[in-house]
Amino acid sequence: MNIACDARSLVGRRTGVATWLTEVAAGLARHGRNISLAASKPFELPETLRVAGVRQLPPPRPPIPGTLWLHTLLPHELARCGADVFIASLAVVPRRCPVPAVAMVHDITPRTHPHHHTLANRFCFNAYLEESLERAVVVVAGSAATEAALLEQLPFVRTKLARISYGVDGFFSPPAAGDDGSATRNRFASGRRYLLHLGTLEPRKGISDLVRAFESLRSRLADPPELVIAGAPGWGTAPIMAAIEASPARRHIHLPGYVTREQARELLRHAEAFVLASEAEGFGLPLAEAISCGAPAVASDIPALREAGGDAALFTPPGNPAALATAIGRALEPEVAGELRRRA
Length: 344
Hints:
Helices cover 40% and strands 16% of the residues. With 344 residues, it is α/β, with parallel strands linked by helices.
């Protein structure tokens, strides 16, 4: 069987969808399926996918916008490569898709929380979502939260909806014996203990709330940790950066930018606490990865993060910096941190 995939998430810096696609494609290849990866721009094949049975389809020359490519050129490429099925890894199915399609829905926040997305993102997703899910033979939700959102917003998908929950790669694990984290602290936090946020910098991540909570926390603790906010800039970063630059705790806030998978693991392994203060998420994979690495975790009390964190995280109302500061303070207490690690 030849399975073609929308591989646009592998273009440029890779985040959660790219991780999902890489692992799914690698797993299918291990089970003897042929995988054809298609994108509107050139990309470097991840090491995990440099195996027999995986190939990259040639991108258009010159590159064109992704949505235009998806609906005009990709159908011809799917027919040419002999695809038997198409995985729409970003949920959008080509209008003239020549083969059965599986629509993978990670979240529908452009529809449920449009103010958290750019105009272009809202248009490219919302304009095609409903018709894409109508065309798909199967619709897959990556979490119970996304499944519930789909059933509420687009109930016609019920008869073809399946939930295949995300998992955490074994790569994300506690540190080895003898790794005291000093190298990580020296590299990212001026040699000091640190709190960690990991993810793209954009409005829905609640980073401004985290900064205010951090300021409050510093006034309460005799020896407060630093704050590391790791992630590539997304859209709408101006208010986030303004809050950081105006913070009285600015010199204790570290912005390493995008970090590699290996660096993310080291940061998660040695954080005093991991904090994800998002207002909206489809799942919140970094939270699950943090718990797998042994980090005490604090997260917003929203369905997706409840699902990802289970009973191994502390939860706090989104948009409430005071409550967030209190929860982080609790996570820093040795007894609470130890209990959270035991629950992981």
